[in-house]
Design goal:
This protein is α+β, with helices and mostly antiparallel strands. The protein has helices at about 35-50, 65-70, 85-90, 95-105, and strands at about 1-5, 15-20, 25-30, 55-60, 70-75, 80-85.
């Protein structure tokens, strides 16, 4: 999905028009500032777009959001991809949040 128009300044409440003809949507922290109902609606929308063969490139620090909407996850640290795979591949019998923290913050 291509962004058809982008305002000069964005806030959590700023609507962005999306061109449905494109196959890619790039979205940064989509749940910030949303209440529980709006979060559920965004998750359903993202899953629907994936089912329509759209690709979603989403950034989030909230692993539960990543697990809920992503088929594949990449973990970045200091600008480098340190892990990627399906949720099951990355988790390996651990919580995804623990994997993320281990890879980005070490064993602190």
């Amino acid at each position: 999905m291509a962004i058809a128009s982008v305002p000069k300044a964005l806030s959590a409440a700023t609507p962005i028009k999306i061109d449905n003809a494109s196959a890619l949507l790039v979205i940064d922290e989509p749940m910030v500032g949303l209440d529980a109902l709006a979060q559920k609606q965004v998750k359903l929308l993202l899953r629907r777009l994936v089912s329509e063969q759209k690709t979603i490139f989403m950034t989030t620090h909230t692993m539960s959001v990543a697990e809920a909407v992503c088929d594949r996850i990449g973990i970045l640290h200091r600008g480098r991809m340190v892990a990627s795979g399906t949720t099951a591949e990355l988790k390996s019998n651990r919580a995804l949040e623990d994997v993320f923290l281990e890879l980005t913050y070490g064993n602190d």
